[in-house]
Amino acid sequence: MTDFRFTRRDLLLGGSALAAATLTGTPRPADARPSGPQAKQGPTVGDRAPELAGTPGDWLNTGGKALRLYGKGGLLDENHLCLLDFWEYTCVNCVRTLPYLKEWHARYARHGLTIVGIHTPEFAFAKLRDNVVASAKEFGLEYPILLDADYRNWNNFKNLYWPRKYLIDTNGRIVYDHAGEGDYGRTETMIQRALKRKNPKLVLPQIMEPVRGSDKPGAVCYPQTREIYCGYWRGDGFFGSPPGLRKDVPAVYSDVPAAERKDGVFYAKGEWRVLNESVRHARATANPWDDYLALSYRALETNAVIRPEGGNPFDLFVLHDGRPVTKDAAGADIRYAADGQSFLRVDAPRMYQILKNRRWGKHELRLGTTSEDFGLYSFTFASCAVGGDS
User: Are 236 and 372 in a shared domain?
Assistant: First the structure.
């Protein structure tokens, strides 16, 4: 099997290829975010793909050039086709597809396939070029990336999901459309078929083996807590602390007994500000557990999108079922202090893998810090496994 040259996050964010219909993202209002559908549906199989929209400054990995699908110098001609991938660097479902995209780029670019990653941001900080550049470098992405910060491409395709893949043939016709994770073998098969239509004599490799055990047929997917958004724009129904959510202003909140917590709802204790996209610690404290966030969840894997709001790194301490995270439940980003406390070093706005339980079940998670720069945007969960792979 090919050496895929996976990064640390490629290898450790595993666990989860869900079925082909695993989706993330919902219709968006047109308020400087991905919009909702402008018609019943966007272009689909058999339709001509819309042209790509972007200036030279919107592109990565192109040597400063703006790419386009059509016309002289375009990506599509009698010898070239294109795979468009709508993604977002904090989206766990998108991250899990990247090892496959990297390998398809390595296998098929020389045969005429160009992969274009269209990065449409879910959060405001993901619009920033420097953040996307850093994530693309960390993930080891070498194919062209189009920064879709103004959502023109998202809206032109009337897209609703992260991730979303469109395979476009030499004539600009969409020949394959896949939303969500999974179905990697089917997607690669469609790439090979499209390549062989233009050159039947091509000798192509065997379809790549699944990267994770949970991508294989027979994966078991347990019920899991739904994705939790922490800001009030999408998340006011996810917040459960008395006396109730107050928008944009510091407020003192109370936790509730663990037995009274609802699955899929997070609770705050202490002083916090609930903002449009996030909940933010509203003061510096002497002890990381003076203020904290807590939730009960059901899952194997737990991730969180976190930002150091002031730009300064800080430590975020983690309790799992009332104790420091055990080594066999630690996610890729967990560290340990000399006294045994488990924590995350939050040094960039990104998704952090907190937990990777060996067994599915109901658990309690608490996050505490002394820093007022702690901004929490979302929690995501996964619960698919084959054998010991979770």
Answer: yes
